[in-house]
Amino acid sequence: MAAKGAHITQNSIEARPSIFEVVAADSLNATFYPALKRIANFLATIKPGTFGSLVRYYDEAYLLFTWVVQRYYLRHKGGSLSEVFYGLTRISARTQNLDHTGQRWSLICLVMAPYVYRKFEQRLHQWKDDYENGKPVSQNKVLLTKVVPYLRAYFEGVKLFQYISYLAGIGPTHSPVLRALNLTLTYLAEEEESWTIRDLLGGQVKLAAMLSTVMLRTLELSAFFLQFIEWWQNEANMGDLSKLPIPDAPPADFNSEKYKGVCPLCLQRWLIPTAVSISGYVYCYRCIVSHLQKENKCPVTKYPATVNDLVRIFDDEDDV
């Protein structure tokens, strides 16, 4: 684990992790969701029929996966996967250990709260898009779309204040969530390996214990792989897209010939031609907007699409 390399010179009296260790644990925990989602998207592009539902219900699958993993680490290691990876564990500020109540609330904050927040964010984006596109939205929902960014900024300010106070040695913890749960982080006591290769060959190790240890070590080492994916994706996004070769246009299919020069919905000459960027088909602006507000998919290809995916096309008949 990373803790063994990070605490070679650690004094046994020192129990307060550095700000770099706690921030690294938070960063690793935030990496799991997007990194695993990229893997799910990659699998879906290879086999859409098999892994398409994984992308569609990714939030629920991730919720179940993290619930199982984080519950195990909280019960047996006293911290989340990312915290244990960096050699940290959670303890109560009063009892100096993590009781069942602390485990339960930690699990809710680690797993359930992010899931609910992501779903709430999706609703906020939907309400904002509907409001901007002229669809009826209640005033309470519109008010939420305007207030939530300020609440998010306030929470980030509280986090920054907690970081500064922890760095200055004033605050007991770096996280406002841990502060609310009356928990803090300390170093995890190193444990000896429960079995060796000699024990395995001698038949002194149960198969369940061996598989459990192997799975846990694989899961912890996978954190390195997930961090690499995040770094690789960021490096790829920073590249100059203008240096990439321009691909050839896809060949025309039956529908492209069928709807050549006309709107696939009204079958008339385009009025304010507008393309759906997801599929490339061109429609009348009013036709496609009305359709997307009801169906949320391209009428021809059935690909998921919204009003935000529309691109206005200017032809020779437009006045300049």
Could you characterize the architecture of this molecule?
The N and C termini lie far apart (64 Å). The strands form two sheets. A three-stranded antiparallel β-sheet has the order 4-3-5. A two-stranded antiparallel ribbon has the order 1-2. The model is unreliable at 1-13 and 205-210 (pLDDT under 50). The protein contains twelve helices and five strands. Helices cover 58% and strands 6% of the residues. The chain is mainly alpha-helical. The relative contact order is 0.09. The protein has helices at 2-6, 19-46, 48-56, 58-76, 81-85, 100-132, 139-167, 176-180, 197-201, 207-237, 254-258, 285-295; strands spanning 88-92, 183-187, 273-276, 282-284, 310-312. A hairpin with a 5-residue loop joins strand 3 and strand 4 (282-284). The chain is elongated, with a radius of gyration of 26 Å.
List the topology elements:
Layout: H1 2-6, H2 19-46, H3 48-56, H4 58-76, H5 81-85, E1 88-92, H6 100-132, H7 139-167, H8 176-180, E2 183-187, H9 197-201, H10 207-237, H11 254-258, E3 273-276, E4 282-284, H12 285-295, E5 310-312
Helix pairs in contact: 2-3, 2-10, 4-6, 6-7
